[in-house]
Amino acid sequence: MIQKYQPGPGALHWEKIAELKRTERDTAVRSYLPDSDAHPSESEDQNDVSTTPDIEELVSRLSRGEITAEAVTIRHIKRIAKAQQQTNCLTEVLFSDALDQARALDDHFKATGELIGPFHGVPVTLKDQFNVKGYDTTLGYCGRAFNPAENDAQVVEVLKKLGAVILAKTNLPQSIMWCETENPLFGLTTNPRNPDFTPGGSTGGEACVLVLGGSLLGWGTDIGGSIRIPSHMNGLYGLKPTSSRLSYSGVPVSTEGQQHVPSAIGPMTRSLSSLITTTKAVIDARPWTVDPAVTPIAWDKDMFADAQSRPLTIGVMYDDGVVKVHPPIERVLYQMTERLKAAGHEVVNWNPSLHADCIKVMDQYYNADGCEDIRRDIEAAGEPMIPHVEALVNRAPAISVYEYWQLNKQKIALQKAYYEKWNAFVAPSGRKVDVLLTPTMPHTALPHKGCRWVGYTKVWNFLDYPAVVFPAGAADKELDGLLDPSHVPRNDADAWNWSRYDAESMHKHPVGLQIVARRFEEERVLGVARVCERLLQQASSKPHGEDEKIRPDWTVLLGQGMTGGMLNGQ
């Protein structure tokens, strides 16, 4: 029997709390490791079906009785257990409850011949932030351990009603406010492809489980890139919706209560079809009927179809004018734009003016309370701050209410200016821009403690625009070596980023690109992602090496203002 932490006088030291939590987790995982005989394994034909990354395919097989929910659950539990061994990605283990849930689904199917819903038997994992009744939501803080949630998060309720099987909760950084994944409670989470590299953050544990086949659907949160960054670094699909499109109810977060740059919840998957299926199903559940914070907008099938039915006008931003991207990012983005143009879409250069101003205001928001909220959570059990959090909380003191109001005025003015900028832009064809195509990060995955600049993602949180990330390629030490390597850093962040580039160690690490639309246009970014995916599929069917011929002509690009600094455009 594992000792439980009781806060109050004489409470346990943080190291003891961490020891107890890790022991609780590891004990629950151990009997499900692949070489364990404690639980039955599935037959070989069942192994095959459970390798699919696609939700609809799995549910179709379940509906025909070709496999049981219990067998699918066991298979994915074993994968998650192995993923934990490899990457240290888990916080809470729900395996026993998941098996009970799967057996209940099988009983229902046997009795009725019908599935409970579109997620019947689908293995799902959640970032630690999502409340699941009976399990801790620690946010990586020792002081929140051994205090199980009394209710499920609203989206967890929906997922269960639609038949999803919740398997585990996954690791995140202390404070949540970092693009890597480490905390004193559960430790460091490592990249599945290279243990010396970060998987990204703050939804890094979730990305590890998905990459290693532990679930078909993951849920994360995003206040500055936390869904999109690990999706980019791990070859996954991830959606950051407009903050009020889906329900955040029952999802605790650091700096809870602030409304200046709200966090958003969103799905992460191994296939685009699964991302689309999930987004539509959760919106179709009408979350605004139970959460007044959700904007009542139904799934717009016409917007989704329109994005796939005509030539698009796409604004491409190679550079945010602050931190230049590494050669692999530049090449993959260029290749994608060339494919789009060859398919008849109009591609125009997008000027990153206003981005630096948006980021400057957002960084002040992060410290508006002097990080008092984060400090209190850390001090609750006396745990140490990881270096990134220590730098964050000591960056600036709290501001006054009056100063906060002035920040809000700046935010509103910048949001209006960006809105007007988009409205005013007219492409050579005379059409308006449908979406933007941008880098997700200035680099691929990289060694631990190397991730600093998230300007390419957090600007869209500031504007509250939806963004989807999709895998578009990978670093290639031979191809990327051909790009122009000369670059004079513009500032400290740019110099730091450029010093991290290593073509050899980054070789074959995924590169994800980001599609951005205006508020409440989730259907549009998903539709355009499908357009891009089809072009990538066509490219992959070409003879080996044919697609590699798409490389930037730097003389032309420099003449167009598409690299280094502010770009041409309105």
UniProtKB/TrEMBL annotation:
GO MF term set: hydrolase activity
Sequence segments annotated as region (Disordered): 28-53
Domain annotation Amidase: ranges: 73-526
Residues annotated to bind substrate: I176, S202, I223, G224, G225, S226
UniProt keyword terms in alphabetical order: Hydrolase
Residues forming the catalytic site: K127, S202, S226
InterPro entries, per database record: Amidase_dom, AS_sf
Family that this chain belongs to: Belongs to the amidase family.
PANTHER family according to UniProt: AMIDASE (EUROFUNG) (PTHR46072:SF2), AMIDASE-RELATED-RELATED (PTHR46072)
The protein's name: Amidase domain-containing protein
